[in-house]
Design goal:
Elements (H helix, E strand, L loop, with lengths): L9 H19 L9 E7 L13 E6 L2 E6 L5 H7 L9 E3 L5 H4 L2 H8 L8 E6 L8 H9 L10 H4 L7 E6 L7 E6 L2 E8 L6 E8 L2 E5 L9 H5 L5 E5 L8 H6 L3 H10 L5 E4 L3 H4 L2 H9 L6 E3 L5 E3 L2
Parallel strand pairs: 3-4, 4-5, 5-6, 10-11, 11-12, 12-13
Antiparallel strand pairs: 1-2, 1-14, 2-3, 7-8, 8-9, 9-10
Helix pairs in contact: 9-11
Amino acid sequence: MIRPGCEGSFTGILVSLALLASAASATAADRCDALDGIHLQVLGSGGPIADDGRSSAAYVVWQDSRSRVMVDAGGGAFLRFGEAGASFDELDHIAISHFHTDHSADLVTFLKTGYFSDRKRPLGISGPTGGGPFPALDSFLDSLIGSGGAYAYLGGYLDGSQGLVRIGPVTLDATARRPIPVIEEDGLRITGIGVPHGIVPTIAFRVEVGGYSIVFAGDQNGDDGSFVEFAKEADVLVMHMVVPENISGAGRALHAPPSRIGEIAAAAAAKSLVLSHFMARSLRDLDANIALVRTHYDGPVHAAEDLMCIPLD
């Protein structure tokens, strides 16, 4: 592990990254659906461009081999969900950070798979309020499965008819800079907070289960300090490293560069950090970008891969 002040050691960086790659390979080989304890599984570690063999953003939180929470549902997540052995019947909640396609496009495919399930209890789905060209959660669902929606034949999810379970939408104020309760039941607690992502209303989520906490930063530029308090002492902090260090303009308005990611993780005293949601511009020199994160944060760092399974205990 490279400590602040030692980042100039080229050998240290190579050793640290080699250990990181080894650890990532080991966890990626595990099946979360066959493990006791709390685990985070990366369904999708990529972005909106189909050029790297990665699914777009999506994650599952497991407890004792049960897939309890899904966060985001970008393109490809439907396939990875099945490959992971996760179950629509088991899900307690689906949380959508924002309505860019690479975070939400596969949501309706999960609803379709639910048509063939034995699920009887309602399913909670949370997401942000709207703004500009981006709809609020209720409007998003209505545009998909409401009367006149693109997939209106699945409209039974809105009222529990047609043999479908009822969706319980929870719309969170994306302008709020304080934690908002989402769900608290059966030992599971989820809260959300608005984060800055250009003009896109976006929510970060904190999932607490089994005595552990996982914070999903969502897409954000890292410029609002209230998120640091929200993420304090998370067992795992998931941050999206979409852009390189020298990004400017629209890219910087939307996303935090590697050094800022390291600063946030350090200020939050996160116990471990998962870097995800990669694109070609951040993968092009991934080792150097991770080294920039480590100039500020000295805890364990995981570079996400699709289906990677990360134990919290």
